[in-house]
Amino acid sequence: MINRKIEIFLVIMGMAVFFFFGVTGATMINVHDDEMATDLYEQYLEDASVEEVAEEDLSTYDEFVEALRTAGIIIIVLAVITVIVGIVSVLLLRNDKRPKIAGVILLAAGIFIGFLQFFIALVASLFYVIAGLMALFRKPKISLGE
């Protein structure tokens, strides 16, 4: 039986980052007609003017806020799924029960979220991919004793 503390630690680190990712999504959903939303929209308009975007291509304030809310929902769903995957994989890795299944699950989740290329998700995806590879390829030491 192999000690899987490193894999479990990496999964927990990934879960923590994904949890933070979910909190960020929750704040995006709660954007209303407040100062933060107005500041974000003004920054969006400034960036668009620097890039010389045509005025008819710019979003209105309501469209901007709705896009933030939609992105927030997507981020929360992805965060919840990846945290659940992390919990399941920790349970499978604990006591070296099913490391191969945990490795495949972690690799699939890490690669899927990594392809979405949210920067913070990319960091957490790396934790999941490394833990998944370690779970798949680490073998118990074979003693040559009698």
From TrEMBL:
Membrane-crossing residue ranges in chain numbering: 7-29, 71-92, 104-137
Keywords: Membrane, Transmembrane, Transmembrane helix
Residue ranges constituting the DUF4064 domain according to the UniProt record: 3-115
InterPro entries reported for this sequence: DUF4064
Keyword ATP-binding belongs to the record: no
Protein known as: DUF4064 domain-containing protein
Organism expressing this protein natively: Amphibacillus indicireducens
Source organism phylogeny: Bacteria, Bacillati, Bacillota, Bacilli, Bacillales
